[in-house]
Amino acid sequence: MEFEFLIDNKQHKIALDKKGDIFIVQDGERTIEADIHLISPNVVSILIEGRSYQVYFARDKEKQYLSLEGQQFIVQEPSESIEGHEGRETKPKDEEKLVISAPMPGKVIKINVTEKEEVRKNQTLAIVEAMKMENELKSSIDGSVKKIFVSTGELVDSEKPLIELELKE
């Protein structure tokens, strides 16, 4: 079987075959053997080359959210506007870099900054708990906090703007 999808706006194509209990995953020229087991409807255990991974899933409308080793990914079907741009990553607009959003539905458990505070690239701005995991939301730029839209304890939907940043002048 072949699959085509986007992960964080980058198009991927994989082929998947099953031999006994093992899945053969081919991504371009790379081939991986994986032992995959469903733990629960939202958790899969994957064994690759002797290393075990747990992948957590959440769905919101047409997007699927994955969490693997503390990193979050958005997986979705390719749209018509992406077709023909195979393997190319779409660049986010400058405005998108300035708004930190929830990666998936969850609860804001900590906000580490205040409005007008200066921040540096990769600084943790807030922590959102989703699927029993704490997700650190980090600054994508050197700048300052323009506006905070949420408070600690608030439940948020995926892609809800949490913090707006502005570039350093």
Average of the residue pLDDT scores = 80
Order of helices and strands: EEEEEEEEHEEEEEEEE
CATH class of the largest domain: Alpha Beta
By secondary-structure content and strand pairing, the structural class works out as: mainly beta
- Please mark out the parts with pLDDT under 50 across 5 or more consecutive residues, or reply none: 80-96
Polypeptide structure, described:
The structure is a single chain. By secondary structure, the chain is mostly beta strands. The chain folds into two domains: 2-76, 2-Layer Sandwich (Glycoprotein, Type 4 Pilin), CATH 3.30.700; 94-167, OB fold (Dihydrolipoamide Acetyltransferase, E2P). The chain contains one helix and 16 strands. The strands form three sheets. It has an eight-stranded antiparallel barrel. A four-stranded antiparallel sheet has the order 9-16-14-11. Strands 13-12-10-15 form a four-stranded antiparallel sheet, with no helix packed on it. A hairpin with a 2-residue loop joins β2 (10-19) and β3. It starts with a strand and ends with a strand. Mean pLDDT is 80; it is low at 80-96.
Quick structural summary:
The protein is mainly beta and about 170 residues long.
Q: Which helices and strands appear, and what pairs or packs with what?
A:
Elements: E1 2-7, E2 10-19, E3 22-27, E4 30-40, E5 43-48, E6 51-60, E7 63-68, E8 71-76, H1 94-98, E9 99-101, E10 106-111, E11 118-119, E12 124-130, E13 133-138, E14 143-148, E15 155-156, E16 161-167
Antiparallel strand pairs: 1-2, 1-8, 2-3, 3-4, 4-5, 5-6, 6-7, 7-8, 9-16, 10-12, 10-15, 11-14, 12-13, 14-16
